[in-house]
Amino acid sequence: MKFGSADNPGNLDLSLPDDHPDTKKILQEKDGTGTLNVYVGCAKWNRKDLKGFYPRGTKDELEYYGSQFNAIELNATFYNIYSPEQIGEWREKVPDNFKFFPKVNQYISHMKWLNDIVERTDDLIDSIVHFEKKLGTTFLQLRSNFKPKFFGRVQAFIKYWPEGIPLAVEFRHPDWFQDEKVADELYALFEENDVANVITDTAGRRDLLHMRLTNNEAFIRYVGANHPSDVNRLEDWVKRLEKWNQQGLKHIHFFVHQNLEKASPLLSAHFIEQMNETIGIDLKIPKIRDDVGQGDLF
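The structure assignment produced for this chain is given below.
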């Protein structure tokens, strides 16, 4: 994932900005009772992408991945809509507590720009429902040049999206957050329809790091810069999530990428270890091969 890459990340201020003033209010208003649910994963399970993660001799990559993580950001659905049989095969390879977080197909988001996409949206929904109880939040990622003038299309898509299937949306044009009037309308739409506002943390696009939650879900797409600062950035996220949890946050969905995928599982393992220690949860820490170390991150 090269979106938002930076040539010299060590020269940038990569600290997290202050919360949007309404984030605390949202967490206090929304139902924050019950157990804290934390799902952490990578974007792919392919051996080619996750170098150094799989033990030698691993026969089934998804089955092994599911034994180490409790979630996957399923970018595969961005490129294809899969048959119920294929979805069922994936579903049965992972444990009961595992969840798939599928990405909305590119025909809907990137080719048609949310215009005239009812049939394709139905096809996507008819596919992903076969994950059954292992279906997490579906996320819609929009183009970098998808501007607020298309607000009506976003509104129509959200209104059409069926209740009962959690949805999150990622914007990559800064006007959605920096134009106060636009942002207020967007946040109101999300709050009314219980849609999560995806937070994108990448070194080269700090203008997208809005820190505004719109329901009781923090859906975070973290992109490491293949730089030593990646570790400190993750630890900053642990502190912020601890704060949000104290304010009532109960759903944390955190996905780790790198601009050049080398060892996302290693970063993820560090993040999970810090979350366990700081927030008091008990997520499994993924096993990392003995021959893979910090130097493989950067």
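Interim note for the steering committee: The chain has a mean pLDDT of 94. The chain has one domain: 34-296.
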